[in-house]
Amino acid sequence: METTTLSPGLQAYIARGAQMMAATAQQRAVMRRKRFDTIAVHGLYNMEAALANQGSIIEPGYFATSQHFENSDHMETALAYQMPSWTYARIANPTQSYLEETLALLEGYGYPGEVSATVASSGMAAIFMATNPFLVQESSNANGHTPTRLNIVASAKCYGGTFMLFSQRYQAERGVEVRWVRNPLDLDEWASQIDAGTRLVFGEMPSNPGLGVFDIAGLAEIAHRHDLPLIVDSTVATPALLRPLQHGADIVVQSLSKTMGSSGMAIAGAVIARHDIPSRVGPEELRANFAMYVKLLPLRDHGPGLSPFSALMILNDLRTLRSKVDRMSRSSEQVAAWLSEHPTVETVNYPGLPSFDGHAIAQKYMWLVDGADDYGAPINRYGHLLSFTVKGGIPAARRVFDRLQMIWRATDLGRIKSVATIPAISTHQQQGEAGRALAQVPGNLIRLNVGGEHTADIIADLEQALG
Ligand SMILES: *Cc1c(COP(=O)(O)O)cnc(C)c1O
After folding, report:
1. Rounded-to-integer distance, Cα 126 and Cα 235, Å
2. CA 81 to centroid of ligand 1, rounded, Å
3. What is Dmax (Cα atoms) for the chain?
């Protein structure tokens, strides 16, 4: 929109938009003073919003594809992104935005700066949206030198889908070099991979399925020294246990399909970013508010918008996130300890076990949010994902897996119901033997998502299966 020749009609809508944004900012400020559980239950949806929605005390689901405008001035202002509006549900939608505001508040809890979120149709869509905007070659090189080959530096201990996105879609198809970090605990290994062609640093914490961890603050410092954003996939921890932005990360990606949507009724993802992030490439808008930039431009053009119905499902699950994660983490600690004593179990990966390789780092970063209010002092919690290998190799692991009677056999995690999988034949099948060796996913590894059932019943099922 040409701002120099604005008609009074357009100016009126821009002014109305400014008022709407001020009201939202005020409500955000009100909610930022509340505790985590209160934010999870209410988000930005307050009494005034309810009265504008027939009094509904739950955020309404808006399933219409598009928005009607009062007149051409209203439409023009909205389509120029000069006032809050949603226009068309691929770009935005009121129900999606309730979820986005809640996510930004939860992930930004305890972080003093501004945080914004945009939701996407899956965790993978969120990871694509969080990384792809940085994968651009500088158009010209001042010295006339050939630019250094584009690359990204990422932890090899990551989700199978992420491994495929990076190694196949980015590296094999587009020539973006992926520099895998084998031991994410080793900050020197990260630092040694960065050069002039690097565009971003990506880590998963804790990782699925190996529960690998890294020093977020240390890695953020390294990334920032090179003007690079640190992107953290924090799906397994959720903001109830870890909020990477507090420790210097710039962008967090979440698969909302997992613990944040623990009922397992929706596939969804989110990109949550602090404002004013570092980047060697891209327009100023990308740095100023990355999540909003992604929402308004790349996500609009690539098209992985989230269904409003799925947004509502995730909102419902989020309300009880903290108490569920606390309960399931306590249960997981017991299950992990029990497994590590079992004679047929070889190794147990769980960040809460003192014998675990990354335990000290996990202990530094993974705390139950507002835990002191329940337990009198801050308390470590390590989530509800663990993995273990059994003696006797792949055939033994398959026998144990096949004998489970209550714990579901499914390629899934984050559930309120206990679920197990063998990553080598499921989530990490397609990356092949070499890829699994790189990510340290042996064939006899069983991944276990500890659900909300009574701990004794979970252990009983494992006992008969291992027996
Ligand atoms: C499942 C998962 C993803 C992908 O999420 P989808 O919603 O299935 O696309 C990304 N990262 C981690 C750690 C995951 O567990």
Report:
1. 11
2. 31
3. 79
Q: Are 220 and 349 in contact (CB under 8 A)?
A: no
185: CA distance to ligand 1 center in Å?
22
Token pair of 166, please?
Answer: 């990076």
Residues 274/114, Cβ–Cβ less than 8 Å: yes
* Distance from C-alpha of 31 to C-alpha of 28, rounded to nearest angstrom: 5
Q: Which pTM does this prediction carry?
A: 0.95
- Tell how strand 385-390 and strand 345-349 pair up: antiparallel
- Name all residues whose Cβ lies below 6 A of ligand 1: 122-124, 159, 161-162, 204, 208, 233, 235-236, 255, 257-258, 267, 269, 413
- Percent of the chain at pLDDT > 70 equals 97
Residue pLDDT, tens place only, 174-229: 999 999 999 999 999 999 999 999 999 999 999 988 899 999 999 999 999 999 99
What pLDDT is stored for residue 185 in this prediction?
A: 96
Confidence label for 2 from pLDDT (cuts 50, 70 and 90): low
Which residue segments constitute the domains of the chain, with CATH numbers given?
3-79 (no CATH), 94-318 (3.40.640.10), 321-466 (3.90.1150.10)
Distance CA 373, CA 392 (A): 45
Q: Under 8 Å CB-to-CB from 285, ≥6 apart: which residues?
A: 292, 293, 297
Query: What is the overall mean pLDDT for the chain?
Result: 95
**Nearest atom (ligand 1) to Cα of 208:** 13
Distance CA(167)–CA(161), nearest Å, equals 10
**Section 73-82 average pLDDT:** 93
Give the closest residue (by CA) to ligand 1 atom 4: 123
Note every long-range contact of 337-341, with CB atoms under 8 Å and residues 24 or more positions apart, other chains counting.
338/459, 338/462, 339/386, 339/388, 339/462
Local structure of 120: helix, strand or coil: strand
| pLDDT one-digit tens code per residue, 107-151 | 999 999 999 999 999 999 999 999 999 999 876 555 656 678 999
Nearest CA to ligand 1 atom 5: 123
Residue with structure tokens 């196949």? 168
Residue 373 clears pLDDT 60, i.e. is over it: yes
Distance CA 216, CA 218 (A): 6
